[in-house]
Amino acid sequence: MNYFLTPPCKYTRWFEGIFVCIAGLACFLSYYLIRFDLCTSADCNTLQITRFWASFSELYLVYGVAVLIVGIVLIIDTQMNRLYRLGLETSVLIGVVLSGMVVFAISNEIGNAL
């Protein structure tokens, strides 16, 4: 149990932080796909289920910045123990995966409408 209560080494901090930062960049990619790919090729105003995410795709930018900040904090903070880091990483990465699935849901709904 003491293993989870100690801070990780420098390389682990960098690996985890960079991985979370890449997930933040994936949020920017989700914004780009919704705003400049899916909604330009089809009318996103006619969507029934995913209209909220299509119309407020700027939330992906806010979430992407927040995830990048978490990644930078994970790199910089040398005293945070592994258990807290694991909790932060898990919650952030699950949020990124779930929000990334919205892109596929919008694409699927557009495909069904055509």
Structure description:
The protein has helices at residues 10-41, 51-55, 58-76, 82-113. With 114 residues, it is mainly alpha-helical. Helix 1 packs antiparallel against helix 3 (58-76), helix 1 packs parallel to helix 4 and helix 3 packs antiparallel against helix 4 (82-113).
Question: Can you give me a brief rundown of this structure?
Answer:
By secondary structure, the protein is mostly helical.
Distance between the termini: 55 Å
- Radius of gyration (Å): 17 Å
- Secondary structure class reads mainly alpha
Shape, principal axes of CA atoms: elongated
Overall pLDDT level? 91
Task: Please give the largest β-sheet.
Answer: none
Tally of helical runs: 4
Helix coverage percent: over 70%
Order of helices and strands: HHHH
What's the total count of β strands?
Answer: 0
**Any low-confidence stretches, pLDDT <50, length ≥5?**
none
Question: Beta fraction of the residues?
Answer: under 5%
Strand-helix topology:
Blueprint: H1 10-41, H2 51-55, H3 58-76, H4 82-113
Helix pairs in contact: 1-3, 1-4, 3-4
Q: What key phrases describe this protein's structure?
A:
4 helices; mainly alpha; 114 residues
